[in-house]
Amino acid sequence: MTTEAQIAEEIQARFLAEGAVHFDADVLQPAETLLDLYGEDLRGRAYITADPLRGEMMLRPDFTVPLVRMHMENRADPVRYAYSGKVFRKQEDLSGRAAEYHQVGFELFDGQDAARADAEVFCLFADVLSGLPLRAVTGDMGILLAAVRGLNTTEDRKAALLRHLWRPARFRALLERFGGRTPVPDTRAALLAATDPMAEAGPEIGLRRRAEIEARIAALRADAAAAPIPGAEIDRLEALAGLSGEMTSALGALRDLAVEMPQIASAVDMLKRRLDALGAGGVAVETLDFEVSFGRTNLEYYDGFVFGFLPDPSTGLPPAATGGRYDALTRVLGQGREAPAVGGVIRPAVIAALRGKGPA
């Protein structure tokens, strides 16, 4: 009987055979770095503790962030990494989803040809998972990011939309307000209408100083005075976010959209190069599923190609594998330096479950 541990060893051995360097990360990671990246929302999904010497620490929610930090400090491209170990994430309900589970990962740092690197990682995962009842899905966060950056609105509004792109409900609420389709909340309207909002504010308490509050009020007033995002642009953005289909047909639809959304043209060209690289790698791109918004709610540090290998929903199992490109993350952790990177993780427990060996 092949156990989960044996499956993990087999997968890691395969990754190492592809020229990957073994990587390991401490179970406890500095919380500040992760919270800076993902925001305070991460507190609700991570296990955090206090260390008397090192401050807030977090049980590692993934291997990617510590790996990127190490790479940006110590290594040059190109290089491949492999890792294997447990990660820890709180669950929102008692659905039976594991709060700690094993991941085996592969990461490729190579800035020479992004499309070819994307295809290499996807093809490797497809080969490792071949023979299992899984549906492969791809997407491209870079197309959505480019669409938002090209909106006819202020830089502050675009920054707010980009910050909440991975939270569709918040994103849509902002988009509706910036487009003038929903009114400004009454409390904010009263604040903006006041001649001197700080006149009866009382003594300064808490962490925010008067200058910070006044700067925020000025920003809100500037936003209120800005013209709404044109309705046609909002409609096109929503159509783009909902686009899905087989990869080759989706490419045609995206090219049509790019006529009216020229800001996405470069990202669509990148999708074409990736499609060609996948085809050269033996992938049947004419039947490969593509969703522009795939991974939008749970792959938040990816900024380009994304992919997943999904069991049938009736199994109740999580994805067997997910991954994608995260160039922006390397810029943040590299303090301005960039090392284009793409990778992904496999959950051995899901493979074991699909083989009928136990729960995932």
Describe what this molecule looks like in 3D:
- The chain is of the alpha+beta class.
- It has a domain at about 155-200 and about 210-230.
- About 45% of the residues lie in helices and about 20% in strands.
- The chain contains 14 helices and 12 strands.
- The protein has helices at about 5-15, 30-40, 65-75, 115-130, 140-150, 155-165, 170-180, 185-195, 210-225, 230-240, 245-260, 265-280, 325-335, 350-355, and strands at about 20, 30, 50, 55-60, 80-90, 100-110, 135-140, 245, 290, 305-310, 320-325, 340-345.
- It has a 9-stranded mixed sheet. Strands 2-4-3 form a 3-stranded antiparallel sheet.
Percent helix among the residues?
A: 40-55%
Helix and strand string, N-terminal first? HEEHEEHEEHEHHHHHHEHHEEEHEH
Overall number of strands? 12
Question: Order of strands in the sheet with the most strands?
Answer: 1-5-6-12-11-10-7-9-8
Give a short account of the largest sheet.
9 strands, mixed
Beginning-to-end CA distance, first to last residue: 16 Å
Number of helices: 14
